Amino acid sequence: MIKILDPGLYSSIQDKGREGYQKYGVPISGSMDLKSSNFANFLLNNPINAALIEATQFGPKILFDVSTYISITGGNMNPLINNKKVSMNKAVNINKGDILKLGHSKNGLRSYIAIKDGIKSELLLGSRSFYNGISPKFKLEKGDKFKIVSFNEKLNSLSKINMKNTYESKYILVFKGPEYNNLSLGEKNFLLNNSFTISNENNRMAYKLKEKLKNKLKSIITSPVLPGTIQLTPGGEIIILMKDCQVTGGYPRIFQLEEESINHIAQKKTNDIVNFKIV
User: Fold this and answer.
1) Band of pLDDT at residue 153, cut at 50, 70 and 90
2) Backbone angles phi, psi at 83, to 5 degrees
3) Residues of the chain with pLDDT > 70: what percent?
4) Can you tell me the mean pLDDT for 195-210?
5) pLDDT value of position 166
6) Do β-strands 273-278 and 171-176 pair in parallel, antiparallel, or remain unpaired?
7) Cα separations (Å) of 271 from 53, 171, 201, 216?
8) What is the DSSP track for the chain?
9) How confident is the model over 63-110, as pLDDT tens digits?
10) Which of 13, 42, 126, 180 could cross-link to 176 by cystine, CB 3.0-4.6 Å?
C-alpha cells in the first residue's frame, strides 16, 4: 500500500490510456509524456501499460507501507527518500516505511514515478488513467491510498541509464493537417517562420499559444481530433490538443504533432518558446 501525504500541484495516476472508446466520446487520456512513462516501467521490467504516477510542476510526498522498487523519469523534481537524494532514470530500492518526496521541477514539467508491478487502482474502460467523469477523481488528494505489490527480491534490472531529453529544444515537428492547405501562403509563412510562446492556459486537455494568427478560415463540420492535433480558431488562437482532449472539434486542423513531439510539448512550461517544423 502507498499513502499520499501531499499530492503536489497536480499528480494523477496514468497508463497508456483508453484506446477504442473514442467513438463513444471518451478521451484517450494516459501519460502526457509517454516516452518517459514507458521508460520508467522499462527500468522495473514492468508491463508496458503498468499504472504509475504523473506529477506536474512539483511532485507528491508518498509513504510506502511495503518494500518495493521504484523508478523516476521525465522532469527532474529533485526526488528524495527519507530526505536523501535519489537518482533519476534508475531502479531504486524502497523499504517499508520509506517516504518519497518530489520538489519543484528543475527541467521539464512532468515527472513519472513507477512502482514495481504498477499501481493497482481501479480499472475503468480498460485503463487506470484518471479522467474527470470516468474515474472517481481526476487528481491525487491527501490521504489517498492505493494497493501495490510487496517486492523483496533483488530486482534483475539495468543500471542507471541517462535518457537523452530534448526539453530545451524549441523545435516541434508537425505533419500538415487536413485543413493546412486552406491557409494562404502568408499564413503558412507566419506559422513556419515565427516563434510561439506557451501561454498560462496549458493543461492535460490543451496548450494555448500567446501569439495569434489573423486568418479567414471558416469553422469546419465537427470532425475527429487526436492528441497532438493543432487547431486554429476564427479569432486566431492556436490550440494544441493534449491527452485529455475531446474526440471531435469544429476548428480547422492545421497541424498534427509527430508522436515524439507530443512527449516534447508535454514537458514545456508557461512562457517556453516553440517553433513549428514540418516533417
Assistant:
1) confident
2) 70, 15
3) 96
4) 97
5) 63
6) parallel
7) 25, 15, 11, 27
8) -EEEEE--SEEEEE-S---S-GGGT------SSHHHHHHHHHHTT--TT--EEEEESB--EEEESS-EEEEEEEEE---EETTEE--SSS-EEE-TT-EEE--B-SEEEEEEEEETT------BTTB----BTTBS-SS--TT-EE------SPP-----------TT--EEEEEEPTTGGGS-HHHHHHHHSS-EEEEEEESSSEEEESS-----PPP-S-EE--TTEEEE-TT--EEEE-TT--SEESS-EEEEE-HHHHHHHHT--TT-EEEEEE-
9) 999 999 999 999 999 999 999 999 999 999 999 999 999 999 988 999
10) 180
The candidate with the shortest Cα–Cα distance to 32, out of 263, 270, 256, 269, is: 263
Phi/psi of residue 185, nearest 5 degrees: -60, -40
Mean pLDDT score, 24-34: 96
Report the chain's mean pLDDT, rounded to a whole number. 94
pLDDT of residue 41: 97
Q: What whole-number distance in Å separates Cα of residue 158 and Cα of residue 16?
A: 23
The b-or-e profile of 66-89 (16+ CB within 10 A means b, else e) is bbbbbbbbbbbbbbebeeeebebb
The whole-model pTM stands at 0.94
Only one residue has cell 507530443, namely 262
